[in-house]
Amino acid sequence: MNELDKYYRELGLEPGASLEEVNQAYKDLAFIWHPDRIPKDNARLVSKAQDKLKQINEARDRLRSNPGKAHSSDRPSSGYQTNKSSAGYTYSNPPHSGDRTHAHAQGQRRSHKPHNPDLTGADLRGQDLREKDLSGRNLSHANLSQADLSDGFLHKINLSGANLQGANLFRANLLQANLTYANLQNVNLIGADLSGADLTGADLRGAKIGTKDRLFVKLIGTKLTGAIMPDGRIHE
């Protein structure tokens, strides 16, 4: 089996799947297998989840660094394809056969891998950020009011003091996110996962979290000390 085919299979995809399909498959599997979702008293399952997450992380990274690359048996290759908007890699020469050249190309990919920029205080009002992977980014004190972050992968994102008033966080993955003292007024949190997130002092007045009788937000291990809840009461 071709090496890239193996990574497609790891994400449950057919070889040659689009970058969009790769990103979506990764988010789905990361949501299912993230260790924070596993009971801590089940050490065997936690270990299995950690290993699985490493595998799908590697698969996503390898496939992202080869956007649109054809399988040699499917169609001829004229060189590495470039997708600056999603991967940021640039190649000037087509790949050649041989382990040494392959290793050199792998080194190129690693050296050109973009870093996550610091977005502290960024103005992202009303931006369409649906399904974006912003995990680990620093957006403290950023203005994200009315932004669409639905189905976003926001694991460990720093949104401390950020303005998210009226933002759409439908089904967003906010595992272990830092939302301390964030403005979450009138935010749509239906289907969002806030497991392990820190919402200390956050303002949730008017936020959509479910119906009168049913909660549609995951709050396992969420810190809510001093947070203003949707109904206006302060959580103790």
Give a structural overview.
This is Pentapeptide repeat-containing protein. Residues 58-124 are annotated as: Disordered. Residues 6-68 form the J domain. By secondary structure, the chain is mainly α. It has helices at 3-10, 19-33, 43-64, 99-111. Helix 1 (3-10) packs across helix 3 (43-64) and helix 2 (19-33) runs antiparallel to helix 3.
Summarize it.
This protein is an all-alpha fold and 236 residues long.
Count of helical stretches: 4
**From the alpha-carbon coordinates, what is the Rg to the nearest angstrom?**
20 Å
- What is the number of strand segments? 0
- Order of SSEs: HHHH
- The N- and C-terminal alpha carbons lie at a distance of 56 Å
Structural class: mainly alpha
Biggest pleated sheet: none
Mean pLDDT: 79
Beta fraction? under 5%
Runs with pLDDT <50, length 5+?
Answer: 70-115
- Broad shape: globular
Helix content: 10-25%
Region (Disordered): 58-124
Organism: Laspinema palackyanum D2a
InterPro entries: 5peptide_repeat, DnaJ_domain, J_dom_sf
Keywords: Repeat
Question: Which tags fit this structure?
Answer:
single chain, 4 helices, globular
